[in-house]
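Hi! If you just cloned this repository, the fastest way to understand the data is to look at a raw example. We've pasted two of them here, unedited. The first protein comes first, obviously.
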Amino acid sequence: MKIFLWGMMGSGKTSVGRHVAATLRLPWYDLDARIEERTGKLIPALFEELGQQGFRELERRELEAVLAEPACVLSCGGGTPCFFDNAALMNAAGRTVYLHTTVDELARRLENETQHRPLLQDATPQSLRNQLAHLLLKRRAAYEQAQLSLDTDELPTSAVAALVCEYSLSDR
């Protein structure tokens, strides 16, 4: 069984992924962390060095390595399902879940983290919400290809993880 968690930065993919993996006793991977480990560089440095296209190619190669795993939970980078045919590949390989989070909630969660997020590094407190709304608008069609969409704003991580586990164990 493979479970892929999609969504915007700040949607809870990492926290939910850890819970799901622990509950189902599966290996858990964070795609960005795997890339950083493999390259020895942080994501912002890779974006600066390779540009977005180069980073997305590197991300694709790491996704392919995860697809070769027999079973796991993968917390994808926010843009992973939006490039190449990544969404289709993950849909064919396992269960995909979009953790939908509103722009207001994302802005609240990310207001003190913009310096660590390559696509938000120029955001001011005033512009953060607009930048997130623009990015979500661009990504929504890719995210909506997920087999399951969960609204996460009002739910604690444990409840979202329980819903992901329930879905992953169902016959669809």
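Ok, and the second one:
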Amino acid sequence: MKKLKPWQIILLVIFYPVGIVYFIIWLCKRNKKPAAPSRSIVRDFNSKVVGVTFGNDDGTSRQEIIKSCNPGDDLILKPIPTTEYPDAIGVFTKSGKQLGHINAELAAELKSDYPNNPMSVTVNNITGGGDKTYGCNIHIIIYSL
């Protein structure tokens, strides 16, 4: 092996660690996903889930499902039109269990004014319990397109 000259050793000592650090930074930046574009909030409000005392078609109890929910849990709004309520929107857990519906006026407004807007829906709080029936208040944030 050829012996390195002093100036070559100095260059190795300076640039070798710099190259390693640069390579690590490059790897970290390469693996980062681009940030999602921020969207402005169009509407931010709370609402009550209605129909919480009825049973679900699959035989599950909405009261038991609500009882197992916690504030902050993510929820899903899904259209479930019927002949009597063509704008009906159901409130579901992430696992697909139905808690109830949003009221008819709000459902019609969401369908007409914000049909494709992204939304965030979470449990705001659980009411009732004990000798009273459980209720669920939800927090809805509607974002711009």
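That's it. A detail worth noticing about the second one: The chain has a mean pLDDT of 91.
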